[in-house]
Amino acid sequence: MADATAGGDDGLSRAQRVYERLKEDIRAGALRRGERVREEQVARALGVSRTPVREALARLTARGLIEATPAGLVVATISRPQTLELYAMREVLEGSAARFAAQHAAPSEIAMLDRLSSAFETAFGDAGRLAELNRRFHSAIVDAAHNRYLVRMLDELSDALALLPGTTFQLAERGPLAVSEHAAIVAAIAARDPDAAERAARLHIQRAQEARLSLLQLD
């Protein structure tokens, strides 16, 4: 874990940085499902006092990423039924984001989506890089939707996604399929076709779910 004290000295800022760092460690697998999370160890590793760590852990617990057990706080585990529920909601929300983006995206935002889609296509062979570009692509769609309430809902959903182990881009076939799926979403948004954008985004999430379930079988 990197030092979380840089960039500001107020407790709230430190708590936010600890929160983001722990969330990223969960997403990256540095903190594994079921692993004990000790307040004092986190504080020592990040070079902060226990107060911002306590605040961050409370927030992570409220968001379902950390859970209390008789043995203490541990990284939460997401079940197969929960995974299906998560992707069902993701399909609805990501589809809506693409629909709104087709209606409201600025030309510069569409250009950003096109650049991210192209960058994704050149990152084959690096599952971590593909996952990061994919997250940025989806985040750019949400930004282009210009709906603050959708942003809030997808932010919480993104937290839950951090509990899923690994990335679907570990599967060799997932990257090439995602390239065509991203291209279809961008084309529909650029054409200002909300129906096509929503269909393309929903299909993208459906196929991501299929890949996720395949990955879970290998876990």
TrEMBL record:
<dbReference type="InterPro" id="IPR036388">
    <property type="entry name" value="WH-like_DNA-bd_sf"/>
</dbReference>
<keyword id="KW-0805">Transcription regulation</keyword>
<dbReference type="InterPro" id="IPR008920">
    <property type="entry name" value="TF_FadR/GntR_C"/>
</dbReference>
<keyword id="KW-0804">Transcription</keyword>
<protein>
    <submittedName>
        <fullName>GntR family transcriptional regulator</fullName>
    </submittedName>
</protein>
<feature type="domain" description="HTH gntR-type">
    <location>
        <begin position="12"/>
        <end position="78"/>
    </location>
</feature>
<keyword id="KW-0238">DNA-binding</keyword>
<dbReference type="Pfam" id="PF07729">
    <property type="entry name" value="FCD"/>
</dbReference>
<dbReference type="InterPro" id="IPR011711">
    <property type="entry name" value="GntR_C"/>
</dbReference>
<dbReference type="Pfam" id="PF00392">
    <property type="entry name" value="GntR"/>
</dbReference>
<dbReference type="InterPro" id="IPR000524">
    <property type="entry name" value="Tscrpt_reg_HTH_GntR"/>
</dbReference>
<dbReference type="InterPro" id="IPR036390">
    <property type="entry name" value="WH_DNA-bd_sf"/>
</dbReference>
